[in-house]
């Protein structure tokens, strides 16, 4: 059944916050200008367009809030002022009754919390649009956090997504930049993201992978990730080790705990680049609410990661492309940046290299004239994405997610240390990483990885050579067949030529008879 009442509610909210004016104001057609005058009724909006859109999404409820949060990451598609406002959206959702949380746990895990846990807090510690969190204690004494999915979410999500698809098709047809903004593709991406987030096993597996990545010896002291309690985890319940620390944005508390803020800022950059270039797997929701700093004596100053619903993945191609781009930026080698864009296939092959080089130089040079501590690597990447529209670049979703995460990391780092030089911190790491990839150690590592495959193929090579030499020689027969085909082709051409001459003569005779 089509949700007409929900659609009516959306229309009322759109009119209340003058979002229709937001769309019409971007059109130059005279009919649009006339409609704009009718809509405004002689009054101008009191609030900025980004603020109005944010307030409208908050009014429409948690699913639309989530959509705004995801849309805020697509700064390659939407204006910067709107993206900044959407990034302020937060899930202000009341907790659902604890009795329902207990029922969900019992249904998912086959027993009530009283049986499963030594202690279970009925009062949720946090509540968001998708789930809420309760603290508990296992029978072996371990403190855990239990994330419980909000009931009935699938039905609500599917209804709102159906309406979003309708609105997206309207925007695509009516908005001046409708096709470039790809609203239907954005809604489809949001659909996938939401349904993934509804499966807490997926989030738990992301958590487990990130923890395993940072258990390596050379990464000791960088990042703490909670351990997943798999026996108490299902698609609607996620049980993990309880982590305690100071939120990353509470700088005064960090100082009082005697945390070295400059070292903390540098470690944040190292964690980010380690995830991106070494692992190709990164936490993509690194806002202050999801990042804590340990205050325990044995792990003082270590980062703690929470909430693993959004992660990014990069292929080997993506990692090489990004690393070479960053290094080219550091060296001001804009021709190399242009070449990389063309070689990657993300720019049409007929793009003029010198034209793209000039556009990249126009983006980057103003930043290099500033002190390094004032340069934002995330903003440079953002400007490049915006410039790329001129060259019909299809920005890859994983790179947009990366750029959004980089802005988060940069913002947190500058809050901790206003003089943080992200470029200077990142350049040695990238150069070392590139050397490990293309230097002798990188060659040896890749050969070691391929050794198992080669070990299977090498013994077969003599047999394959002998087998190939023993094959009968069909080249003579093939040459004969090709010669016959060529002769038949030539004969057909001669026949067609004769027919064309006869046809022309016949036409000439007919025309002469008529005249």
Short overview:
It is built from 23 helices and eleven strands.
Descriptive account of the structure:
The protein is an alpha+beta fold. Helix content is 61%, strand content 8%. It contains 23 helices and eleven strands. It has helices spanning 4-16, 19-24, 30-40, 49-60, 62-71, 80-86, 98-109, 113-116, 153-174, 178-181, 183-197, 200-213, 251-256, 261-279, 316-330, 334-344, 353-368, 377-387, 397-416, 422-438, 440-457, 461-469, 475-514, and strands spanning 119-120, 126-127, 131-137, 143-149, 223-224, 237-241, 246-247, 281-283, 291-293, 303-305, 311-313. The strands form three sheets. Strands 1, 2, 3, 4 and 6 form a five-stranded antiparallel sheet that branches. Strands 5-10-9-7 form a four-stranded mixed sheet. Helix 15 packs antiparallel against helix 16 (334-344) and helix 15 (316-330) crosses helix 20 (422-438). It starts with a helix and ends with a helix.
Strand content: 5-15%
What gap, in angstroms, lies between the N and C termini? 74 Å
Average predicted local confidence, pLDDT: 79
Number of beta-strand segments: 11
Rg (C-alpha, Å): 31 Å
The number of helices is 23
Helix-strand category: alpha+beta
Largest β sheet strand count, sense and barrel closure: 5 strands, antiparallel
Low-confidence stretches: none
Helix content: 55-70%
3D shape: globular
